[in-house]
Amino acid sequence: MSRRNKLVLALMILIGALIFGISLKNENLGSVWHDLIHLNMWWIAVALGCMFLYFGLEGIITKMLVESNGNKLSWRDSFRIPLIEQLFNGITPFSSGGQPAQLVALMQSGIEGGRASSVLLMKFVVFQSMVVINFIISLIVGFGYLEEKIRFLSWFVLFGFLIHLTVIVGLLMVMYWHDFTKRLIDIAFVPLRWFVKSEKYTEWRSTLNEKVDTFYEESLRMKAQWKLILEISIITFFQLLFYYLVPYFILLALGKTGVNIVMITCLHVLIFMVISLFPIPGGAGGAEYGFSVLFSQFVGNSGKLVLAMLIWRLLTYYLGMFAGMVAMVVRPNKLNRKAD
After folding, report:
1. By residue range, what is the domain housing residue 268?
2. Among 138, 137, 127, CA closest to 233
3. How far apart are CA 198 and CA 228, in angstroms?
4. Residue of 30, 4, 240, 26 lying closest to 130 (CA atoms)
């Protein structure tokens, strides 16, 4: 990690501690402590297991994609790479650092740069597609509740969905209407001539065209490996499902019985969309607020709500970052040989 990344990591931990402190400021600490020591640790273990499955299934996906064309990746590195992604997603705005960090980690494991980029591109397309599909399902189930209880937050959710949907539509256009998409890009770039120097304009246009061509070439590989993509899509669906189930098990740990598992899961999907809108790494502040607002109807007691939010944030955000810090010091198992 660079010095800048270490500083950002320390800052995010500090911000998290500050948010936790503010959340607890107006609560009866004795009551919160009582709820904490009476947690059902079996359900907390289940929630923790869901997060390990979330990380583990991504490791399996990474290994499947790397070895689909004959490369070899050890199981240790397969699980190391998603944890590194979690760390850099957590310390960069809009989770933008996860992809470059994975690329470096794959190359450290002996995977050629072009092949590593192809793997990450295929994984990104599948992941975004599953996010959009899960969100559409959740929107059908939970948007009525969201609009009724907290209408102002529904606009943030819809905006987050539009961002993810736009990404998927753009990728599909490159895959199936390559020439048409490039013409649209040329038209969209025309106004930039008025605001940037010609050298910068030419550089940006050339870089974007190169990336579009690269993705189109990789999309041909994806369409040829449709069975692999289908398998990975199914695994990714369940990977996300385990992540979305975490708040449900936290509520059970707090003694909240009779809660609707489908509604809780769908509301967590909606929170995921809200987090993606905040430019602060990890959606700090927005994530905690969104959780508190959406789940207040199910918890009731404000002290238990704060405790639920703290546990949720520790499991879904800080756990990945701390595990990523450990993964960073693990030496890659560089295997320069073909898979069996």
Report:
1. 3-329
2. 127
3. 43
4. 240
Residue 337 within any structural domain of the chain: no
Say how many residues make up the chain: 340
Q: Which two tokens stand for residue 155?
A: 């606009």
Q: Is residue 245 within 8 Å of residue 134, measured between CB atoms?
A: no
For residue 335, being part of any structural domain is answered with no
The token pair at 209 is: 């065209």
Q: Do residues 249 and 63 make contact, with C-beta atoms less than 8 angstroms apart? A: no
Whether 339 maps to a domain, the answer reads no
Half-sphere exposure of 24 (CA within 13 A, CB side): 14
pLDDT in tens, 101-134: 998 998 888 888 777 887 888 888 899 889 888 8
Distance between CA atoms of residues 264 and 298, nearest Å: 9
Encode pLDDT of 222-279 as tens digits: 778 888 889 999 999 999 999 999 999 999 999 888 888 988 898 888 888 777 766 6
Give this prediction's pTM: 0.86
Q: Is 40 left (phi over 0), alpha (psi -120 to 50) or beta?
A: beta
Which residue bears the tokens 């449900």?
A: 248
Task: Tell the residue number behind the tokens 């583990």, with chain if given.
Answer: 56
Please report where in the chains the tokens 């038209």 appear, as a residue: 187
Closest by CA to 138, choosing from 279, 260, 224, 264, is 264
Q: For tokens 């503010």, name the residue.
A: 22
